[in-house]
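Sync notes, pocket subgroup
Present: LS, DG
LS reminded everyone that the earlier model was apo-only. Rerun requested with magnesium ion included. Inputs:
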Amino acid sequence: MSSGRGQLILIEGLDRTGKSTQASILLDKFSKSKLLKFPDRSTKIGSIINEYLTNKSFTLPDQSAHLLFSANRWELNNEIIDLLNDGYFIVLDRYIYSGIAYSLAKFEYAKLNKEGNITSTVDKQIGDVNWLIGPDVGLPKPDLTLFLTIDLQELANRKGWGDERYELQEFQTIVKKSFLSIFELQKDDDTIEIVDVNNKDIPEVTELIWNLITKKGIHQLTNKPIEKVLN
Ligand code: 2DT
Ligand code: MG
């Protein structure tokens, strides 16, 4: 007889906040675990996303780019459900909140008239959180979301940016505001935790995260149904 399903843990945050490091440490805490990183560039849709992020002369309407990121999550929908039901703990490195936050940030950035290869339009859909969440409605909802947040000053001290589409200091400032405004809207959702990583080393952040996970019982198999993203 099965003793329940595994749980879905999401790590969100800006670039360079230590998401991937913490995700891989977390994986080792479970005997059955799997890391899924979004965007997943290995799929058909993921390869278009990769082209979009790395080739700045490849332009797409912002709406199309947004829908592709969501479509990329749907490519993994069945795999996520099957793994959870098979007792795997899944650690997600970015997911739906990155989807909303980065698109919303484009809207604010475009209003500053600083295109910088980041955005193509200032259409109102891209500034509308209800429109942005629409395509993700129905995906598995994480049992716990950890948003790693850091002061922009400390972020600026970390090692250099890459040169993908969104990797500009000025844009990241706006992405941070977007994330915080989304989580403010969700402040009654007790599956979301903001984790301040300022002045903390890797083991300290791991300890903070693990304490949250155990306190909320996310480290154990569960009989709760898999929740779905709602709008
Ligand atoms: P990585 O640097 O983590 O590979 O991400 N992004 C991500 C979006 O704009 N929408 C999304 O839905 C997701 C999951 C964040 C590459 C960039 O893609 C952005 C940074
Ligand atoms: Mg990146």
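DG: The radius of gyration is 17 Å.
LS: DSSP finds nine helices and five strands in the chain.
Action: DG to write up.
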